[in-house]
Specification:
The chain has about 170 residues and is α+β, with helices and mostly antiparallel strands. It is about 15% helix and about 45% strand. It has an eight-stranded antiparallel beta barrel. A three-stranded mixed beta sheet has the order 1-11-10. The chain is globular, with a radius of gyration of 15 Å.
């Protein structure tokens, strides 16, 4: 079973394989210990490209922030870091409107995207972790414009943690 199939089909069945998959991932992140996180400035959308990058941000529970990237076009890999400093990887699919992730600390979650803003091309979704923590997520190349348009803010805050949107 491929990594993508593992995430998309059965998260609990694949849990024993996550440590090896996470150890094999190569990811570059901002300092996870800081309360202020940053989007990766090198993340650039390239229409139709498997190397296209879109920002991905999620609030998990009351006080966790996940900041990362969705790599690919129509489907691909998700990589990011939690405000706790834990790295996370997963997969996403525009075809199925879903993203799945697992973190080094064992946290696993699934998000279903139910809205795509036509002006900014940002997808908005919600879901939960396997222990029932709620997840609210946003992903897109123009995330800053979407958040500014909907909230008037230039940063997204989850509890004590925030990410400045460029």
């Amino acid at each position: 079973m491929t990594f993508s199939e593992c995430h998309l089909r059965a998260l609990p069945v694949c849990a024993p394989f996550y440590p090896a998959l996470l150890a094999a991932a190569t990811v570059i992140f901002a300092d996870g210990a800081a309360a202020q996180m940053q989007l990766d400035e090198t993340c650039v959308e390239v229409e139709g490209s498997e190397t296209s990058c879109a920002h991905a941000v999620a609030c998990i529970g009351d006080d966790l922030l996940l900041v990362g990237q969705a790599i690919g076009w129509d489907q691909g890999l998700l990589q990011g870091e939690m405000s706790s400093g834990t790295t996370c990887t997963g997969v996403w699919s525009n075809i199925e409107n879903v993203a799945n992730f697992t973190c080094e600390d064992g946290m696993t979650g699934i998000v279903t995207y139910s809205f795509k803003d036509p002006d900014t091309n940002v997808a908005v979704g919600a879901g939960q972790t396997i222990v029932g923590l709620p997840i609210n997520a946003w992903s897109g190349a123009d995330l800053a414009a979407y958040i500014a348009q909907t909230t008037g803010a230039r940063e997204l805050t989850c509890g004590a943690h925030s990410v400045t949107l460029n």
